[in-house]
Amino acid sequence: MSLSEFDLIRQYFSAATAARDDVILGIGDDCALLQPPGGVCLAVSMDTLVEGRHFRPGADPVALGHKALAVNLSDLAAMGAEPAWVTLALTMPTADTDWLRGFVEGFSALAAQHGVQLVGGDTTRGPLSITIQVQGFVEEDSALTRSGGRPGDRLFVSGQIGDAALALARATNSPSSAEEAGYLQQHLDRPMPRLALGRLLRRRAGAAIDLSDGLLADLGHVCSASGLGARVELGRLPVSQAVAAECAAGRWQYALAGGDDYELLFSVPEAKVADVLRLCSGADQPVQEIGCLVDEPGIVLVYPDGHASKEIPLGFDHFRD
Amino acid sequence: MSLSEFDLIRQYFSAATAARDDVILGIGDDCALLQPPGGVCLAVSMDTLVEGRHFRPGADPVALGHKALAVNLSDLAAMGAEPAWVTLALTMPTADTDWLRGFVEGFSALAAQHGVQLVGGDTTRGPLSITIQVQGFVEEDSALTRSGGRPGDRLFVSGQIGDAALALARATNSPSSAEEAGYLQQHLDRPMPRLALGRLLRRRAGAAIDLSDGLLADLGHVCSASGLGARVELGRLPVSQAVAAECAAGRWQYALAGGDDYELLFSVPEAKVADVLRLCSGADQPVQEIGCLVDEPGIVLVYPDGHASKEIPLGFDHFRD
Asked: What are the tens digits of pLDDT across the range A215-268?
């Protein structure tokens, strides 16, 4: 990019987010200088969204600015970390000011909501792609990990799952009603990172992960990291009416393998379940028990009619590709 | 990418770099957990390299792995920071194992040399692009900034400048001899971040910056951040024989605006010059005085024949685009 375009972009981003006291030096030098509080760990996560892969060409830039930050904050939520700083590498074909204005709007609204400051990054010319790194704080012994599950832990999921995947499918195949389409699209475009939930699960949950790849894949990560298996009661999955209708027709893939939900999946030791449910209710954090962790490896699916199977439902593998 | 390709990539990177004691949790959970030492600032920098923009299609992946990390470490060097952790967002069109092997080789060799651990990142499918974020430590009051210059400070540059830009130009226009081409290409492909130099400049240098955009542009950043101007003696610029020949023919653009040098430009208060020169000599860090910072804004170029001008040399602007 020419210098003037670069300056333009810097101008859009320099005032994009709030000023934090722990940012000694922000955008504009060779490095940002940041002052972490003593005695805590930094929690660090990085994610890339590529046009044509993670979002369609022409996607709403406001939604993109929101989502690119949201998927990263969701990783902090899954560790129980407090968000603090973010860096942004933005590659774009031309310095499109309308697009930039929208992107910054979506990005900075979510950043402000969680007190996150943009402290640096890079802008380059090339095919549209967004890489974000977030950093937060968490005490080492209260961080939530994928490996913290124990046999007998009960499994919970927040919010509703499958809506984002169904939105994607409906956009390409059979359109929904306008009302339903809007509802589903909102879940695809505007995931809300479950930071408040992650916070209250510290020292209470066993394992935790955010749902980006889909329930079964992400539960698989937890099982593998914890050295356990799981039992999932399909009739208890928290789903919208639209996704429920798909499940009832045997199309479990949206709820089980949809991905892009950015809800939290977590396990809670039996002794702490009542405490967690009480706190979640008090904090308006909807959570639903969906099964438990077990010693035996593998994921057993218990269907609403009561039969149990380790078989992946029909059509699942195809959907994954 | 399919799961198997993703696993393959993870496998290539999981053992790519050394294990540091301050990495509580590395690759494989929602976030990395890192333990910064007490009482220091984090220095953070992020850079993207895009195929076709920052490197030619088909570029040697070993050199790319090196360079992508080197340009980021160079930013830490310019702050006087100790490198520690790195994250990598790699977007590639296909999971090309030969390419990955080469990239990891170049990346991990440089990481090992500086004790840097890869702690996380993302791999996605799309047009080839590499975003890296490095993090290091520096005490707040010893960090080198662009704004630390004072009038009368003497200006220094490390190593030699202009070789990378000349390598690029020769590759497209008039080829060099094989020997010269190899020498120049080495400077373009394998910049060595000046971390040792940055270290010894702490509390000694005034302003510092690494040369990524070219001497005049980066000196402009220092002048602007320090609220000063500068005087540069063109006859003192440290250049190779090949670049010297270009300068002698009036083609100053390689030395002045080449970019991609990743040498350090820094200012030193008069009283500390002898100390800095002695330390640099003892540490085998070649540095050359090239001028000074002055009160009056703007950059004055003093030509070898003694005439001084604020005019940018002919051909310069065209070269910048």
From this structure: 999 999 999 999 999 999 999 999 999 999 999 999 999 999 988 899 999 999
Q: What's the whole-number mean pLDDT along residues B101-114?
A: 95
Q: Are residues A286 and A209 in the same domain?
A: yes
- Per CB-CB distance under 8 Å, the chain B contacts of A127 are 50, 126-127, 129
Q: What is the mean pLDDT of residues B186-204?
A: 93
Across the interface, of B30, B33, B48, the residue whose CB is closest to A210 is B30
What per-residue confidence (pLDDT) applies to B14?
A: 73
Q: Which one of A141, A168, A196 terminates a domain?
A: A141
> A208 and A134 share a domain?
no
- The answer to whether B93 touches B127, Cβ cutoff 8 Å, is yes
Strand order in the sheet with B208-210: B208-210, B264-268, B154-158, B287-294, B229-233, B298-302, B308-309
Chain A residues whose CB is inside 8 A of the B46 CB are 87-89, 120-122, 133
ipTM of the complex: 0.91
Interface probe for B, chosen from A31, A132, A221 (most Cβ of B below 10 Å), is A31
Judge if A72 and A111 occupy the same domain: yes
- SS3 (DSSP) at A237: coil
Q: Given CB atoms, is A25 within the 8 Å cutoff of chain B?
A: yes
Q: How many domains does chain B have?
A: 2
Q: Do B298 and B174 share a domain, yes or no?
A: yes
Whether residue A83 is found in the same domain as residue A209: no
Q: pLDDT tier at A308 (50, 70, 90 boundaries)?
A: very high
Q: Strand runs (DSSP E) across A106-187, as ranges?
A: 117-125, 129-138, 154-158
Q: Rounded distance, CA B291 to CA B222, Å?
A: 14
Q: Please state the length of chain A.
A: 321
Secondary structure letter of residue A61 according to DSSP: H
pLDDT tens column, B83-106: 999 999 999 998 888 999 999 999
- CA distance linking residue B259 with residue B188, whole number of Å: 10
Cα Rg, chain A, nearest whole Å? 20
**Where is the domain boundary, B141, B174, B197?**
B141
Domain boundaries, position B64:
3-141
**Whole-model pTM over 0.90:** yes
CB A79, CB A144: distance < 8 Å: yes
